[in-house]
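Quick illustration for those who missed Monday's session on complexes.
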Amino acid sequence: MNSQSELTLAGVVCPPHNVGGDLKMEKNPSEIDSQPSSVSSFDDIRWFHRIDLGDGKITPGIDDTAAKLERIRLPDDLAGRSVLDVGSWDGFFAFECERRGAQRVCAVDSYCWGEDGWADKSGFDYAKRKLGSKVEERYCEVVDLDPESLGVYDLTLFLGVLYHLEDPIKALRQISAVTRDHLILETKVDLLECRRPAWSYYGGSELNRDPTNWWAPNPPALCAALASVGFRRIEVVSGPKPFWQRLMRRPTRERSWWREFQCCRMAVHAWKS
Ligand SMILES: C[S@@+](CC[C@H](N)C(=O)[O-])C[C@H]1O[C@@H](n2cnc3c(N)ncnc32)[C@H](O)[C@@H]1O
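Prediction with S-adenosylmethionine bound:
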């Protein structure tokens, strides 16, 4: 660690956020059309989503995608609607919206479609090819989402991305700019015992040992942030878990029982109309 960049607060040495910081997202933020990846063998792909490819194979993702699909309450019928899936990764939710009749679907990602991510875009490309999907794709940072070049969508999915962003309010403003009416947002929430709007800051890797995590709101802060960027109606569709369920949590090596108790996942629908 570069000792010149350490901060000392009341005798406590705090490493700057970006220590070993090449793990943080430093991709060139310029928006480019994404290119198909070169890896195409099913077994070589580091899958995140579990996608039914329709040929008897389900991709072996580490994510419990079916459970997430249930939690976010995606409308059954998306006929005639346009959908933007921000942070699409292997694309399960984009493909699912297409399957539910959406007229136009665009998948956007940066980190995991670039060279520095945990995986790459080969899962998306493989599944898209196998499914015969027409989902559009763009490599773009959330903070660079631009309605002029990307368009405005009836429904935006913003699932599991908010806490990865260094500037979540700016990101929500850009999400609002590309959303005509309806947003489905899924995120980690923290500080559940605090009644005032608050954001938990992760200075290092303490959230899931992942240095790409920066901030998680508590529910009042999430609702206030969504209202401040133009969403007038907000409905919580899942989580946070009741306190008695969180009471049973076990501490981890990185996080005390109290910190575990205060964390959960939550999904909301928000509308401008
Ligand atoms: C935890 S995964 C969630 C994937 C998917 N949305 C889901 O919920 O299953 C986070 C995704 O957000 C993407 N991501 C993280 N930071 C981003 C950023 N600044 N701009 C665009 N995408 C980002 C990552 O590349 C990754 O695909």
